Amino acid sequence: MDSTTLHEEINSFFESAPPLKDSVKIADKLNQFVQFDSPSSEGKGRRVVCVTSGGTTVPLEQRCVRYIDNFSSGNRGAASTEYFIKAGYKVIFLYRRGTCQPYCRSLPEDPLLECFELADDSDFQVRQSHSEAVKGAIRNNHAAVAGGLLLKIPFTTIFEYLQMLRMIASSMRSLERHAMFYLAAAVSDFYVPWKSMAEHKIQSASGPLDMRLMQVPKMLSVLRTEWTPMAFCISFKLETDSKILLEKANMALKKYKMHSVVANELLTRKEEVTVVTENGNISVLRDKTRPGSDVEDPLIELLVKNHSTYIEDGST
């Protein structure tokens, strides 16, 4: 596909997308978050990373009842956010509503009902078995948000996700090499154009459903070359077949001009990933000698090191 066709598809996607709710408020929050303690002309200041997390939905009706979902628990994005903050980054956490949150990964699936109990008829308390986890989650989240290190922005649909990603890129453009994009979200490959979909619930009485899906324009190359051309960009490639994983990751690296592609196989993604770069591949393993360790710990350590090198190369 040539660049003219790609730009036409991208423009068509955004022009037909439903307006983003509270876009002015979101833009203000982003600008305030990014500009506070941003790098100075001497290159000092805190780095900012946009971590995308969870899966996007594709509505089948404008007043949506049915949709196609890209499933993702969001655990990778949530864990990575914690390690980026620990490494000194400010994090814009662009996440799917209802998915895993930073500092809450050790909590049960239904924390409100499982972590609390009635103390008497008029009061409640944290269950002793969950006391440390709840205190840790509240303490760490409050410290990150109050300290200006974490800004959380939720999405549900593919339309919301890509509009917000573009807004985030616009707000981070001035950071140049101090900006990073860590694109761990599971983004839909196909969608129904807003103007083409039914307004109301599709009726099953009408018989079999025949629907044409359009390909979602590949925004990675535009993000990399136009929206934030100086940012350090990392994308992800997930496959179920290990035989084609690295080949596909290398293709993505070259096609979208990423600085790194994190290749992970479905069954082993929590134990091992491979960071694919133009200088070679690096295998990253979870430290099994440490109880409760995450593969994201050494992964973020490596990416932070690579980002530092990228910043230093730009100052010489």
Automatic annotation (TrEMBL):
This protein's record includes keyword Ligase: yes
Highest taxon, organism lineage: Eukaryota
Domain DNA/pantothenate metabolism flavoprotein C-terminal: 48-94, 166-285
Matches recorded under Pfam families: DFP
An example Gene Ontology molecular-function term: phosphopantothenate--cysteine ligase activity
Annotated SUPFAM superfamilies: CoaB-like (SSF102645)
Keyword vocabulary terms for this entry: Coenzyme A biosynthesis, Ligase
Example GO BP: coenzyme A biosynthetic process
Pathway assigned in UniProt: Cofactor biosynthesis; coenzyme A biosynthesis; CoA from (R)-pantothenate: step 2/5
Key word Repressor present: no
Family: Belongs to the PPC synthetase family.
Protein name as annotated: Phosphopantothenate--cysteine ligase 1
